[in-house]
Amino acid sequence: MATAFTCTSCTESFESPELQRVHMRSEWHRYNLKRKVAGLLPVTLEAFESKVSSLQSTDKKAAVAGNTDSLYCKVCNKKFTSEPQYENHVRSNKHLKTMKSKPILSSEPAPQTASEPKTVQQEAEQETKMETEDDIIDQKIKQGTKILPNQCLFCSTSSEDILSNIDHMRKSHGLYIPDPDHLDNLEGLLIYLGEKIGIGNVCLVCSFQGRNLESIRAHMVDKHHCRIPFETEDDIAEIAEYYADYDDDEWEDDDNDNDDAEMTMTTIDSSAPILDESGLELYLPSGSTIYHRSLAKYFRQHIKSNQMSDGQSTIVAADTRRLLARPRDKIYEKARNISQEQRLKYMRHENRVHAKRSNYQAHFRDQLLQ
Amino acid sequence: MSLIQNAEQSVLLDEKNILREDVVQKYHVAGQICQTALKHALRQIQLGAPIGKICLEVDSIVRNLTAKVYEDVKEKGIAEPTTISIDNVYMGSRPEGSGSPASPGSLAKISFGAHIDGYTAKVAHTAVVQASREGPVEGDAANVVCASHFATEAAVQLLAQGHGRSSVLRDVVERAAAAYGCSVIPGTRIRRIRRFLVGQSELSDESGGELQYKGMVWPLAEPRSEGDDDDDDVVAEAGEVWLVDVRVAASKSGKQRAVDEKARVYCRDFGVHHDLKVKTSRTLLGKIDKAFSVYPFSLDAIDMAEKDIVLGLSELTKSGLVVAEHAKEWVAPKAVTAREMTTIALTGKPLRLTGGSSVAAPAWVHSVYDLNSTEIMSLIDVPSYETIDAADVPEEALEVGGEEMTID
């Protein structure tokens, strides 16, 4: 359905580039552009036409009442200085011709002369509004890209299965699935998130709506919004259906139920010892971790504990000499001097070597001639 | 230099000092242990036992009794090693080994302390050695005993009644001493004590040595001009624990002096950092830190050979890591001194942890002077505090652990 020639602001697609260009020049398109700037949803052509016609009917009434500023033919984009002139124009053949031709073109708004009664128009408007919202959703669904559960939400990577996809998103984008112990329907959650991003083009964290999939992905990656919010009640309620037994009163006493869920999540962990990717850590079923021998130098340190007893720290805390002590104690002064001396010595050495090196040139070069 | 964070500091200095029920209980237990040991010591002094033996016995009682209670608490035990000072020596004297018995009729000032988890009870009392049953002691000894007794009782009463204003306390102590023709020895102090902060070292009682120091001390120098007094008028408030430590000399004037003999009591100074050269002194310092923490200790209690202790101590004292606490004597023509020290917790119903007539009754003396102050008399008439009674000393508590080591 979707062709290459589309208008995003009016959510319209065209057969040919000519038709698209004609559309771009139309009043309807301009109107939708303004709506987009104002952050409103686009209106369909029918809705726009009914709006224009209702406006015109009021205009006409005003004109009848003798309003001079309505001496303007919207159909022909012409302005008139006097009333006879305007009436003359309306009756003219040219005007009637354009009036007829415009609705046939269908891409250009055609302000028909208001002949229908006003109340009927308003009802129709409301109906069209309802229809248009559904249409937009349908269109969105048609236009949007569907992200499968084994595809990454934040980039175009697709993995073999859901778990490896989760692993990818955790490592590459830092996505953390909240409360995995209670999670019941991981696939459902991923499909839901995929729809939200792929079809709705809405950020998971903030209310930002992207123009398309690429823009929303860029937004989330750049803003570090690659996470599932789980703080407020609304956040939790949004994805609660994918979690098992998530009623508020069962927070504490649903341990038995959780065990099942936990089992499914941790079966991989508890079945056999797992070797870390780096090959340095081995997770045992008992829960303890064994580290590689090469890490012994880090773990086998005997760091001198500087733990003082309560009494000693009390005495030190209450000792006012501590507060009076000069910041630069003798020992610090000495250490500072040593480091300064060493630095100076090193610099002197550097200078010497540098000076020597500058002499090691294959040919004589006169400094002045360079 | 390890830094104590502010949060940690407020926990250590403020929060842990709130007199909750368990804290009061720890003070109570420490106080009762002191009372028990004091009762035993006073009986031994009455019998004329060797001074050094009494010191070791009291230490072992305190050590054994504190070891039995609060088994989950690591820091507990002796808050001040027992010292018994005779006549003109008013504090800090501790003979090496068992020592010899003091001559009958002389004034023995026994002083020691116990602590549970840093909550400390300290006590000092003046007793007459082998007091005769025929008649009271008379003369200068009688004067100082009376003066120190009434001064202490009055100060404790003022604190218990909530009138513990430093100017009032100072006035009452001075008046009690003056009524018996005595003088207050510099270093006499009435101060608030906190967990682990009980004025172990001299520095903490000098102005500015201890953070949030509260209390007053009779300064070594000449009393300041009267205008200054209003500035540092501190008031004892409910929820605090106060220490009353009154030292009185029989003469109007005199000078204090460190006794010219080797100190047997030392105290660790945690404000000093020094890298030790000799291995023995490093070992000694480790043992001291572990065994005694922040409280003064006697050399008898260190589990090391005497010659190693001497070797290590010389470097420790030179570097200032450990400070010797010398015995102090009063130099004057009539050089008889008395000392009373007691601890009182100002809870809802004030609790006197140590001392009191039930255990440490004043010695039987007769002074030619009279207190002549109905104010003080009426003040101490009805005690407005509870006292703790002594318990019986269990036989095994008397077994002196380090005796074999020290006697040879």
Automatic annotation (TrEMBL), chain A:
One of its GO terms (molecular function) is nucleic acid binding. Residues 91-100 have a biased composition (Basic residues). It comes from the Eukaryota. It is found in: Cytoplasm. GO terms for biological process: ribosomal large subunit biogenesis. Gene3D superfamilies: Classic Zinc Finger. Residues 109-123 have a biased composition (Polar residues). Residues 71-100 form the C2H2-type domain. SMART domains: ZnF_C2H2 (SM00355), ZnF_U1 (SM00451). Residues 87-132 are annotated as: Disordered. Its main location: cytoplasm. Keywords: Cytoplasm, Metal-binding, Repeat, Ribosome biogenesis, Zinc, Zinc-finger. One of its GO terms (cellular component) is cytoplasm. PANTHER family: CYTOPLASMIC 60S SUBUNIT BIOGENESIS FACTOR ZNF622, ZINC FINGER PROTEIN 622. Belongs to the REI1 family. This is C2H2-type domain-containing protein. It comes from Tortispora caseinolytica NRRL Y-17796.
Automatic annotation (TrEMBL), chain B:
Keywords: Cytoplasm, Hydrolase, Metal-binding, Metalloprotease, Nucleus, Protease. Probable metalloprotease involved in proper assembly of pre-ribosomal particles during the biogenesis of the 60S ribosomal subunit. Accompanies the pre-60S particles to the cytoplasm. It comes from the Eukaryota. InterPro entries: Creatinase/aminopeptidase-like, PA2G4/ARX1, Pept_M24, WH-like_DNA-bd_sf. It comes from Tortispora caseinolytica NRRL Y-17796. One of its GO terms (biological process) is proteolysis. Belongs to the peptidase M24 family. It is found in: Cytoplasm; Nucleus. Transmembrane segments: none annotated. This is Probable metalloprotease ARX1. GO terms for cellular component: cytoplasm; nucleus. One of its GO terms (molecular function) is metallopeptidase activity. Residues 26-166 form the Peptidase M24 domain.
